[in-house]
Amino acid sequence: MIDRFLTIGATFDWISPALSVIDELLFGELYRFQIEPCRYSGVEIARALRKKNVNAKARMVVDGKIVIDVRMKDAVKAQILLNTWKVPVLNPLPRKRPRRSGRKRLYHCKHCGTRYKQWRNKCSQCGAPM
To answer: Are residues 25 and 62 in the same domain?
Structure first.
Protein backbone atom coordinates (compact mmCIF):
# COMPACT_ATOMS: atom_id res chain seq x y z
CA MET A 1 0.00 0.00 0.00
CA ILE A 2 2.76 2.44 0.93
CA ASP A 3 4.73 1.61 -2.22
CA ARG A 4 1.70 2.34 -4.35
CA PHE A 5 1.18 5.66 -2.55
CA LEU A 6 4.85 6.61 -3.10
CA THR A 7 4.74 5.84 -6.81
CA ILE A 8 1.59 7.93 -7.21
CA GLY A 9 3.08 10.75 -5.16
CA ALA A 10 6.31 10.70 -7.17
CA THR A 11 4.42 11.60 -10.34
CA PHE A 12 3.43 14.91 -8.77
CA ASP A 13 6.99 15.85 -7.82
CA TRP A 14 7.17 19.63 -7.96
CA ILE A 15 9.70 20.29 -5.20
CA SER A 16 12.85 19.32 -7.15
CA PRO A 17 12.08 21.49 -10.21
CA ALA A 18 11.11 24.41 -7.95
CA LEU A 19 14.38 24.12 -6.02
CA SER A 20 16.33 24.01 -9.29
CA VAL A 21 14.69 27.22 -10.50
CA ILE A 22 15.35 28.96 -7.16
CA ASP A 23 19.00 27.83 -7.16
CA GLU A 24 19.49 29.09 -10.69
CA LEU A 25 18.01 32.48 -9.76
CA LEU A 26 20.16 32.77 -6.62
CA PHE A 27 23.46 31.31 -7.80
CA GLY A 28 23.42 31.88 -11.54
CA GLU A 29 23.86 29.30 -14.26
CA LEU A 30 24.64 25.79 -12.99
CA TYR A 31 26.34 22.80 -14.57
CA ARG A 32 25.04 19.39 -13.56
CA PHE A 33 27.64 16.62 -13.28
CA GLN A 34 26.40 13.04 -13.47
CA ILE A 35 28.70 10.63 -11.67
CA GLU A 36 28.75 6.85 -11.68
CA PRO A 37 28.54 5.22 -8.27
CA CYS A 38 32.03 5.00 -6.84
CA ARG A 39 33.74 4.76 -3.46
CA TYR A 40 32.64 8.33 -2.61
CA SER A 41 29.09 9.40 -1.86
CA GLY A 42 27.56 12.52 -3.40
CA VAL A 43 27.77 14.38 -0.09
CA GLU A 44 31.48 13.50 0.27
CA ILE A 45 32.23 14.72 -3.25
CA ALA A 46 30.31 17.98 -2.67
CA ARG A 47 32.13 18.56 0.64
CA ALA A 48 35.52 17.92 -0.95
CA LEU A 49 34.70 20.36 -3.76
CA ARG A 50 33.56 22.98 -1.24
CA LYS A 51 36.88 22.62 0.63
CA LYS A 52 38.59 23.56 -2.65
CA ASN A 53 36.37 26.70 -2.97
CA VAL A 54 34.00 25.22 -5.55
CA ASN A 55 30.34 25.90 -4.78
CA ALA A 56 28.81 22.42 -5.20
CA LYS A 57 25.60 20.80 -4.08
CA ALA A 58 24.86 17.08 -4.02
CA ARG A 59 21.35 17.02 -5.43
CA MET A 60 20.02 13.53 -5.88
CA VAL A 61 20.53 10.04 -7.23
CA VAL A 62 18.79 9.45 -10.56
CA ASP A 63 18.81 5.99 -12.15
CA GLY A 64 21.78 5.01 -10.00
CA LYS A 65 23.81 8.12 -10.97
CA ILE A 66 24.89 10.79 -8.48
CA VAL A 67 23.92 14.30 -9.59
CA ILE A 68 25.97 17.29 -8.39
CA ASP A 69 25.25 20.91 -9.30
CA VAL A 70 28.18 23.32 -9.67
CA ARG A 71 28.26 26.99 -10.62
CA MET A 72 29.18 27.39 -14.26
CA LYS A 73 32.16 29.60 -13.41
CA ASP A 74 33.53 26.83 -11.16
CA ALA A 75 32.73 23.95 -13.53
CA VAL A 76 36.19 23.75 -15.12
CA LYS A 77 37.89 23.68 -11.73
CA ALA A 78 35.43 21.03 -10.53
CA GLN A 79 36.07 18.92 -13.64
CA ILE A 80 39.84 19.05 -13.02
CA LEU A 81 39.41 18.11 -9.36
CA LEU A 82 37.06 15.24 -10.16
CA ASN A 83 39.53 13.92 -12.73
CA THR A 84 42.43 14.09 -10.26
CA TRP A 85 40.35 12.22 -7.67
CA LYS A 86 39.49 9.61 -10.35
CA VAL A 87 35.75 10.12 -9.94
CA PRO A 88 33.94 8.62 -12.98
CA VAL A 89 32.08 11.58 -14.57
CA LEU A 90 29.52 10.55 -17.20
CA ASN A 91 29.05 13.99 -18.77
CA PRO A 92 32.34 15.93 -18.81
CA LEU A 93 32.40 19.53 -19.91
CA PRO A 94 32.56 20.04 -23.68
CA ARG A 95 36.02 21.06 -24.82
CA LYS A 96 36.46 24.39 -26.49
CA ARG A 97 38.50 24.34 -29.66
CA PRO A 98 41.70 26.37 -29.31
CA ARG A 99 41.81 29.51 -31.34
CA ARG A 100 44.23 29.50 -34.22
CA SER A 101 46.86 32.16 -33.85
CA GLY A 102 48.23 34.09 -36.79
CA ARG A 103 45.20 33.53 -38.98
CA LYS A 104 43.82 36.76 -40.39
CA ARG A 105 40.14 37.27 -40.97
CA LEU A 106 39.02 38.07 -44.51
CA TYR A 107 36.46 40.78 -45.21
CA HIS A 108 34.35 41.46 -48.29
CA CYS A 109 34.54 44.65 -50.34
CA LYS A 110 31.22 46.51 -50.31
CA HIS A 111 31.60 47.53 -53.96
CA CYS A 112 32.74 44.40 -55.82
CA GLY A 113 32.53 41.60 -53.22
CA THR A 114 36.22 40.70 -53.38
CA ARG A 115 37.70 39.23 -50.22
CA TYR A 116 40.52 41.24 -48.62
CA LYS A 117 42.60 41.22 -45.46
CA GLN A 118 41.97 43.66 -42.64
CA TRP A 119 45.32 45.46 -42.85
CA ARG A 120 44.68 46.70 -46.40
CA ASN A 121 43.16 50.15 -46.80
CA LYS A 122 41.71 49.58 -50.25
CA CYS A 123 40.32 46.75 -52.36
CA SER A 124 42.91 45.07 -54.58
CA GLN A 125 40.42 44.53 -57.42
CA CYS A 126 38.35 47.72 -57.67
CA GLY A 127 40.56 50.11 -55.64
CA ALA A 128 37.67 51.33 -53.49
CA PRO A 129 38.64 52.62 -50.01
CA MET A 130 37.65 50.43 -47.12
So the answer is: yes
> For the chain, where are the alpha helices, taking DSSP H only?
2-10, 15-27, 42-51, 75-84
Q: What is the DSSP letter of 72?
A: G
Q: Is residue 116 part of a domain?
A: yes
pTM, full prediction: 0.60
Q: Quick one: CA dihedral 42, 50, 14, 88, positive or negative? A: negative
Whether residue 93 contacts residue 31, with contact meaning beta carbons closer than 8 Å, is answered with: yes
Contacts of 12 (CB under 8 A, 6+ apart): none
d(Cα 82, Cα 123) in Å, to the nearest integer? Answer: 53
Q: What percent of the chain has pLDDT over 70?
A: 69
Residue-number span of the structural domain to which 119 is assigned: 104-130
User: How far, rounded to the nearest angstrom, does the alpha carbon of residue 112 sit from its chain's CA centroid?
Assistant: 43
Question: Which CATH number belongs to the domain containing residue 52 in this structure?
Answer: 3.30.70
Verify that 72 and 117 share a domain, yes or no: no
75-89 mean pLDDT: 93
